[in-house]
Amino acid sequence: MAVVAVRYSEGFDRYQRFGDTDIWPEYNLHGDVANQFWSRLYEEFAEYQFVLYDDETDEVLGEGHTIPLAWDGTPEGLPPGIDASIQASFKLRASNGNATALCAMAAEIPVRNRNRRLAAVILEQMASIARSAGLAWLIAPVRPNWKHRYPLTPIERYITWVRPDGEPFDPWIRVHTRMGATIAAPIAQSMRITGSVADWESWTGMEFPESGEYVFPEGLSTLSIDRHGNVGSYWEPNVWVVHTL
């Protein structure tokens, strides 16, 4: 078996997407800003989206999503999260502006394929796309794998945690740093997700009897419930990491 990468611009109709039913927690599929733009990535930024597939079975093993951005190379110049990044990318495209960096939006690997060490393969393909486009950096607003275990810990503290060997505590951040990336900045409010109380009860399998802050399954931080206003609001935290190409 060989793992082959194909961009959507090269063979969009040839490969069926595997869907995202077991990749993300349900709530994570309802971003206020992300959902406005995500479906447009496959047409307007098709050259920056790709799949990994098994060349023997044609099974899709994983999928990568990236967008071009203009970045000045400083931590202060990084967008304040996923929402801002995707908005900035579409604005840059509409104005015919020049990108300097490729932003990794998502590396999607179904549970059944997570023992195949595909995460690094997806990052390598993202870096290859960036280089072929003449971009200087691959930047990523990383969703830390283990942050849901510590939802009450601020992301600013979480990213300082290290293992006894000095490597980052979080496994997904560790994949990046082992490939030479550096941790640039915490993002306390990266992706906004809002919904009715009923929406959140459906997404989480919980009940929210009164207004307040709640810890919920797979949440990286707390959920704010306002029963009077019938709204639940959540900010997903992330971490900026930078690969200099």
What descriptive keywords fit this protein?
single chain; 245 residues; alpha+beta; Aminopeptidase; nine-stranded mixed β-sheet
Q: CATH H level: which superfamily?
A: Gcn5-related N-acetyltransferase (GNAT)
Choose one word for the global shape.
globular
Order of helices and strands: EHHHEEHEHEHHEHEEE
Question: Quick one: how many beta strands?
Answer: 9
Radius of gyration over all CA atoms, rounded: 18 Å
Helices and strands in order, then pairings?
Elements: E1 3-7, H1 8-11, H2 34-37, H3 41-44, E2 49-54, E3 60-69, H4 82-94, E4 101-108, H5 119-132, E5 137-142, H6 155-158, H7 171-178, E6 182-195, H8 197-204, E7 212-214, E8 223-226, E9 231-244
Parallel strand pairs: 4-5
Antiparallel strand pairs: 1-2, 2-3, 3-4, 5-9, 6-9, 7-8, 8-9
Q: If you had to describe this structure to a student in words, what would you say it looks like?
A:
The structure is a single chain. This protein is of the alpha+beta class and 245 residues long. It has one domain (3-189, 239-244): Gcn5-related N-acetyltransferase (GNAT) (Aminopeptidase, 3-Layer(aba) Sandwich). It has eight helices and nine strands. It has helices spanning 8-11, 34-37, 41-44, 82-94, 119-132, 155-158, 171-178, 197-204; strands at residues 3-7, 49-54, 60-69, 101-108, 137-142, 182-195, 212-214, 223-226, 231-244. Strands 1, 2, 3, 4, 5, 6, 7, 8 and 9 form a nine-stranded mixed sheet that branches. Strand 8 and strand 9 (231-244) form a beta hairpin. It is globular, with a radius of gyration of 18 Å.
